[in-house]
Structures are given as C-alpha cells and as structure tokens.
Amino acid sequence: MSSQTPTLMSLTGTTPASSHRPGRRTALRGLLMSALLCLTGAVMAQVQGAGASFPSLVYGRWAIAYEKSSGGVPIHYKATGSGDGVKRITARDVQFGGSDSPLSSEELAKRRLVQIPMLVGGIVPVVHLPSVPEGRLQLTGEVLADLMAGQIRQWNDPRIGALNPGLPLPALPVRRIVRADKSGTTEGFTRYLSDVSSSFSAGIGVNALPKWPGDVERAEGNDGMVKAMKTTPGSLAYVSYDRVQAERLNAVKLRNAAGQWVAANEAGFRAAIADSDLSRKGDDLASLMNRQGVASWPITMTSFVLIDAAPPKGEEASPVMRFLYWCFMHGDDLTRGTGFAPLPVALQSKLAARFGAVKPQDGKLPMYQAM
Questions:
Q1: I need a surface site. Which of 6, 165, 167, 179 has the fewest CB within 10 A?
Q2: Is residue 368 part of a domain?
C-alpha cells in the first residue's frame, strides 16, 4: 500500500465513547468503509496462507517486515499442519500452503502446483526432566528411536545411563508427546528414526501421522507440543529449533553420523546443507538428514511453500508471488537469528525458474519483481 494512501483508521477516525454506543460506532465505520470502496474502487489486497507449523513463527516475522516495506500488503498465515496446507492450497482455499514434506513432480502436476523451498531448520527432541540440567541429556539415534517406539519406558533405564555417566536420571516413566495432526515435522522426525533404527523402520516407519504403539499424548502443532511438554514431567517431544530458543526448552544432544555429540543450532543446519546436494547441486529435494559433516545436526530439513501453477488471472497471483519473491530476495537478512538457516546460493537460479513456472490462464504474467 502506498505511503500516500490513507488507511481505513485515518479515514473513519475514532468516535468518543460518550458520543455513540459501541453498536452505532461499528455500524458507522461499516458504512464509511462501504462508501469509501464505492467511491474509490479500492481493493484491500490480502494474502492468506496455511499449513506447516514448523516455520510458522518465521513466516509471521517475515509478514510483519513485508507489511512495513514499500508496497506491502497484509499477509496472514495459519499454522494448521503440512497435511492441511497441501489440502487447502489444492482446493485453492488459500494463496499459498506451507509443507515440510515436498511433493513429487507427479503430485505437483496433478494438483497444478508450483513448489518453492523457503528455508532450512532442525527438529529437536526436548524433555521435561526436573533433575536433568538444560542441554545435558545425550541420546543416540537408536536409543531415541526405542524411546519413541515405547520400548524404553523409564528415564533411568541402563541404556540411557550408559550414554550419560554421572547424570541424575529420574525414576520417571517416559511420557511421549506426539502430533495429533498430519505433520511434516512428524514425517521428518520418523524419517530420521527409520534411517537410524531398522526396528523403528519396520514397526512404525516414515509417516506424517503414524500409529504410535502404546499410550501417547497428542497435541496440535509445534506450539501445542511445547505447551503439553511443559506441563508433563517425564515427557519427551519433538519441536522446531526456534521453539527451543523462544521457550528455553531442555533440548537433547544427539550423536551425528560423524560420531560427534552435537547440540541443535543454526551452525549445525548450515553444516548439514554444506554436506548435501542442496548446496552442491541446488537440489531442493536433497536429504539433509544424518549428514556426515562433523558439526551437522542430524535432523535437518527444508521447508516449502506451494502456490497455484495456473491461476485464473495474473493480477490475482501477483500479491502472493510478490511476497514470496521479496522473502527470497531478502532471505539472508530475514532468516538470521530466527533459528533457521537460509537457502544456499546454488539454489537461487533455480528459484527464479520456479516463479516463472506460474502460467495464469488469462495469459497475463504476474507482477512480482517490483520490490
């Protein structure tokens, strides 16, 4: 919106409480808005998105920055889970869907969607163990898999003790907290556990909504997982790293493929990128899981957005494409300090081609490079 365009607030003003009852004030503002739109033909452009909760806090930060920039429009993103994000953009209920589970080229063609990688982050196991200092608990992938499969049921189990000599492990039952919604975070987490544990792979496998054996507590989204874990002593959950930072959660250290004990951080995500074909070849579908780099965080993954490949009109596609392109052009600055890592330079030329793959049905190309 141009800086010279008056906002609705400046046009309608505010009415003192002593002059009008609340109902009359609301009605007056509604009439003034209608009159304004009729007189000027103005259209308040908005961009609606929904899907993956993994990157939702970052998308919110980007939306605020975009709205403050020249020509920005309101961006609304609702964290509903990757499965719902794919469902809603396929139905064209939103202008973009967020997903941590990339679609195949066949699925993209079937749904008439364009897939764009946005950023890289990490999934982190977190615990609520009152006697264990923050960041001290160490687990191998195999032991973590057995914990999530319900095969290790007590926190003072000898297998955990052997990895943590001298650490005061409580005699508490392991209470697993898992996602209730179809989740790209869960799919990425189970992909890692299946990679490091043949028994987990055979018994549970890679799934966005797996059938967890035994009793588990279910929560909606990353933020629901955080809330449930904080109120459940003995709990084990898995969340995005930015939640670990924001909520000061007790994160687990993992032994990576190089045999090193590592804590989750942005440097570890960058190390995973550097040791993958995401960096070497610009392949945004390349796996970032369990890379061999010494500093690599083993549960690292790329998050994507999906947009309509053949919108009815070019002008209707412009607002969402302008926002996403702006995020792409400001990627490094926008991502710094968020708990995520930006995309590598090798991917940038491919991203430009992705935007060009949007072909409106009216033949008019979307305008998205103005900013």
A1: 165
A2: no
Total domain count for the chain?
Answer: 2
Percent residues over pLDDT 90 in the chain: 73
Structural tokens at position 63: 């939306």
Instruction: Evaluate if residue 32 carries a pLDDT over 90.
Output: no
pLDDT digits (tens, 9 = 90+) for 173-199: 999 999 999 999 999 999 999 999 999
Q: Are 348 and 253 contained in the same domain?
A: no
CATH of the domain at 69: 3.40.190.10
The answer to the question of residue 262 being in a domain is yes
Q: pTM (2 decimals)?
A: 0.83
Residue 146 pLDDT: 98
What separation, in Å, do the N-terminal and C-terminal C-alpha atoms of the chain show? 12
pLDDT at residue 72 above 70? no
Same domain, 126 and 273: yes
Kindly report, residue by residue over 123-161, the tens digit of the pLDDT.
999 999 999 999 999 999 999 999 999 999 999 999 999
Whether 369 is covered by a domain: the verdict is no
Q: For residue 58, give its domain range.
A: 47-120+302-356
| Domain end among 300, 316, 348 | 300
Give the domain-ending residue among 300, 319, 342.
300
Residue 329 has pLDDT above 60, yes or no: yes
User: What's the CA gap between 3 and 64, in Å, rounded?
Assistant: 16
Assigned domain for 28 exists: no
pLDDT digits (tens, 9 = 90+) for 342-366: 888 777 767 778 898 999 999 998 8
Same domain (yes/no): 306, 233: no
